[in-house]
């Protein structure tokens, strides 16, 4: 759920489906949702008649293969990507040519000092050489990528990736050579970025765009070497519950692939996976994002049993195997200093004892 629909959902004019991203194709394959028409955007066909879905394979392919009619907007600006992105013109019922430039989305300016420090902490302490990375879009993922310029043999297996990956590929940091499956390939399912990214993936066999029910499948994620999943959130309570889709009762986002990858990294078959939740410790209003309890009505996306690492600019907390009082102790340590005393008092009221290591 993005900014273009939040208001309509808040006013009751639209609705939202809480669902893991990897499960959305099931809605089409199991006929829970039965589309009559699929409106898709594709690249022009090649000499063999194959168009490409380009930037968005994710749930699109499952929708179109279950639609009665397929209408394609053929756009010369759509990059040609491979994997599950290809569709032959014989499957298209109607086509219209429209060469509107693709939407562009990037980080909102340079990363803040806090975001840069989060990137350094993760890069220096939690990302190993040879790790496989999953991360989203935004200042924190870009800050992490900027901190990996001296790493070697990194891989990418991520529902999406953005412009920040390009520099690491050019530097030789991202090779995907440690992967057992899709060796030597970046695996993604959709792209969010700008023309630099679209040009990078265009006709690039280094990139495989695959369906989301495969890319985000927890078992497939667990097979990746040293799977390191980096996700953000809105707030974390003192027991480790993570809210990432709402601000109180107001829906702000969707589940996305956070739980898919957090759990997949935790279950990594090589035992080296690192599930990471990263957030700046305070809001722009200097309110703590580490809170005694989640806001009334806030949704728990990642449960306290799923959470391992929580990172702010103040440090790294490892909650795996920790008791409630130990979790509170670790989380208070990485809260902003302005809020630690208040959080300590709140922890005592909730747990009936002082937080302790």
TrEMBL record:
Q: Where is the signal peptide?
A: none
Please list the residue ranges annotated as the Acetyl-CoA hydrolase/transferase N-terminal domain: 4-99
Which cellular component appears as one GO term in the record? mitochondrion
Q: Which residues form the Acetyl-CoA hydrolase/transferase C-terminal domain?
A: 193-347
Which regions span the lipid bilayer? none
Under the heading InterPro entries, the entry gives:
AcetylCoA_hyd_C, AcetylCoA_hyd_C_sf, ActCoA_hydro, ActCoA_hydro_N, NagB/RpiA_transferase-like
User: Can you cite a GO biological process for this protein?
Assistant: acetate metabolic process
Keywords attached to this Swiss-Prot or TrEMBL record, sorted alphabetically, are: Transferase
GO MF terms, alphabetically ordered: acetate CoA-transferase activity
Q: Which family does it belong to?
A: Belongs to the acetyl-CoA hydrolase/transferase family.
Q: Which PANTHER family match?
A: ACETYL-COA HYDROLASE, ACETYL-COA HYDROLASE-RELATED
- In Swiss-Prot or TrEMBL terms, this protein is called Acetyl-CoA hydrolase
